[in-house]
Amino acid sequence: MATLKGPGAPKSYDGSGLRIGIVHARWNSTIIDALLDGAKKALADAGVREENIVIQSVPGSYELPYAVKQMYSASQVQSSSTGVVGAAADLLGSASDLTQFASSSQPKDSLLKTPFDAIIAIGVLIKGETMHFEYIADAVSHGLMRIQLEGNVPVVFGLLTLLNEEQGLQRAGIAGQGKNEGHNHGSDWGSAAVELGAKRKGWV
Ligand code: DLZ
């Protein structure tokens, strides 16, 4: 059924030449896992090669901006040292710190090749009884926006800010008895990363 919400009719972009990073939080892992699967499937459907998708995790959503920044900076360091692309001087910390972060769970070779064309940040915040939710949601939203504007890399906003768990199950497409109700927003985030990554190579 047609709906007013959403990004409109899907247009396909070629992801075969793109390198995409995903950083996800682990809080609320059932919902996170489904969103991650949705994002990965959309990337694969657009032709992004498995070896060009790098996935890192952090404990909670609050850690997302730092991790996205480090992931992108590390790939920039490697690229500039191999002469592929210039440095992102404003973003960089010490090169050894960045390399350490980059090597934490995946082989260096898979992470440190060329800079990412886009990075997807995925987190699930569920409102509790205190103001914690509001502070984290606000800080993470601003942090991610800052990174994409200052770092000149598209950062896809995959942060769900939910009033309850049911809203998350719906938005991950795993609600209901059959665990298949709702719409998986991770899929939209994967498509957004490919579109932005592809357009970034040729804005006119
Ligand atoms: C502490 C906390 C709480 C209460 N709730 C969530 C949540 O719903 N979603 C989420 O991603 N993270 C949560 N966290 C963890 C914080 O994001 C963060 O990891 C810790 O405060 C440590 O910095």
From TrEMBL:
Any GO BP annotation: riboflavin biosynthetic process
Family: Belongs to the DMRL synthase family.
Signal peptide limits: none
Cited HAMAP family: Lumazine_synth (MF_00178)
Chain's role: Catalyzes the formation of 6,7-dimethyl-8-ribityllumazine by condensation of 5-amino-6-(D-ribitylamino)uracil with 3,4-dihydroxy-2-butanone 4-phosphate. This is the penultimate step in the biosynthesis of riboflavin.
Pfam annotation, one family: DMRL_synthase
Protein species of origin: Trematosphaeria pertusa
The UniProt record lists the keyword Transferase: yes
Protein name as it appears in the record: 6,7-dimethyl-8-ribityllumazine synthase
Keywords for this protein: Riboflavin biosynthesis, Transferase
GO molecular function: 6,7-dimethyl-8-ribityllumazine synthase activity
Pathways per UniProt: Cofactor biosynthesis; riboflavin biosynthesis; riboflavin from 2-hydroxy-3-oxobutyl phosphate and 5-amino-6-(D-ribitylamino)uracil: step 1/2
Cross-referenced InterPro entries: LS, LS/RS, LS/RS_sf
